[in-house]
UniProtKB/TrEMBL annotation:
Domain Tryptophan synthase beta chain-like PALP residues, every copy: 92-332
Superkingdom field: Bacteria
Residue span(s) of domain Threonine synthase N-terminal: 2-80
GO molecular function: pyridoxal phosphate binding; threonine synthase activity
Cofactor(s) for this UniProt protein: pyridoxal 5'-phosphate
Functional pathway: Amino-acid biosynthesis; L-threonine biosynthesis; L-threonine from L-aspartate: step 5/5
Family from the record: Belongs to the threonine synthase family.
Protein name (record): Threonine synthase
Residue numbers bearing the N6-(pyridoxal phosphate)lysine modification: K112
InterPro entries with a match to the protein in the record: Ser/Thr_deHydtase_PyrdxlP-BS, Thr_synth_N, Thr_synth_N_sf, Thr_synthase-like, Threonine_Synthase, TrpB-like_PALP, TrpB-like_PALP_sf
Amino acid sequence: MRYVSTRGTAPELTFEEAMLTGLARDGGLYVPAEVPVMAQAEIAALAGLSYEEVAFRVMRPFIGDTFTDDEFGALIEAAYAGFGHAARAPLKQLQPNHYLLELFHGPTLAFKDFAMQLIGQLFQAALKRRGDRVTIVGATSGDTGSAAMEAFRGLDNVSVFILFPHGRVSDVQRRQMTTVSEANAHALALTGDFDDCQARVKDMFNDFDFRDRVRLAGVNSINWARVLAQVVYYFTAAVSLGAPHRKVSFCVPTGNFGDIFAGHIAKRMGLPIEQLIVATNQNDILHRALSSGDYVTHGVTPSISPSMDIQVSSNFERALFDAYGRDGAAVAQLMDELKSGGGFHISQGALQGLRETFASGRASEEETSAMIQRAQAEMGELLCPHSAVGVHVAQDFQGITPLVTLATAHPAKFPDAVEAATGIRPALPPRMADLFDREERVTRVENDLSAIEALIEEGVFA
Ligand SMILES: Cc1ncc(COP(=O)(O)O)c(C=O)c1O
Ligand SMILES: N[C@@H](CCOP(=O)(O)O)C(=O)O
């Protein structure tokens, strides 16, 4: 299996190389040269298997000879052993024909754990074999950072630096990052928003001298392995609702477009997905782009679903690559326009292609809050604000096809928003009960590439 860049000029890589590389050297994102297709019978045979067994069968064709079957199976088992639910990603009925896929039973209580726990295992195994070490730099609006620090803390062949927007993550999210005590894990609070954090991470990848000196690696969803791990729960959910004999739709709270892009890959692999619905908060660039064809950034407005406060949606580039017939030059031009002018126009043909797979909707702050309240009162479900965005948007898409909304985080990560809507303050699980007693360790940084790079080098070579 080979991986190619969405901008068409970086060298093709193996799975292992793409995983350890992160951003392609032409600024693009790696995607498989071809998406393997599963036969109907193979999909049907997933019914009744454990999450780990499904994960093995779905991901195996993508990893080439990076790991033997035994190694890969053992790494998957280790990745999900710490999850707090036997099903890993349980499905719950919310309304007639509308289901909630609970993705918050991992160690940091958000869907990011599904990929991060696995790539923590994959990185360790690959680095050990190569006798190598890397510096992981990540950007977070709250959940990726805590999941990455949890997955990589204490490893002696990895240093991890996470940039988060100062004052724009929940207290629980911040503390999940700043109370990690292991010396290889560093939380950096940047003056700016998530887009600034993500832009600086991409700048570091495009500074080849720095990149090579520190042996930079990425664990944001620019890393293909992140997306791949998230494909699995589309299969477990759809198969338990009758796929491949029955179509299923998914409504996905969306920011950086990684989670829903994983759904797109599942569909290309042969899973009968009718609709993939992009659910945005008031930072609705993706909903506007899919509605009008104009992808135009307006600046981020902080919301009660802070993890989705994103305007430059990294993985949309992967969807554009497919919509433009895998024309890397066309994608590179759109990304140049985005960088220099703050937006681009999607051609009619590409827009039509995107709309064949993706529908969209948005939830305002009031609608999100009202949905949290209504879900608790009428459905007995305490939703996190991101999941509430999804459930709100899903109300317009219910029909004869079963619809699954992804519940992307535990409500206790966002207790203020949940309490304001319902009067109920959700409690953290007992293993995190002392989170607010732990000592915080955080470095404040300005939005300045050279200063951030200097700080990281100091940390790596200290
Ligand atoms: C809780 C939560 N929900 C939804 C999202 C959006 O997911 P994605 O960025 O993959 O679109 C995020 C951030 O990624 C998140 O942390
Ligand atoms: N919402 C994310 C933003 C980063 O997304 P990623 O999937 O590219 O890592 C977060 O919680 O950090």
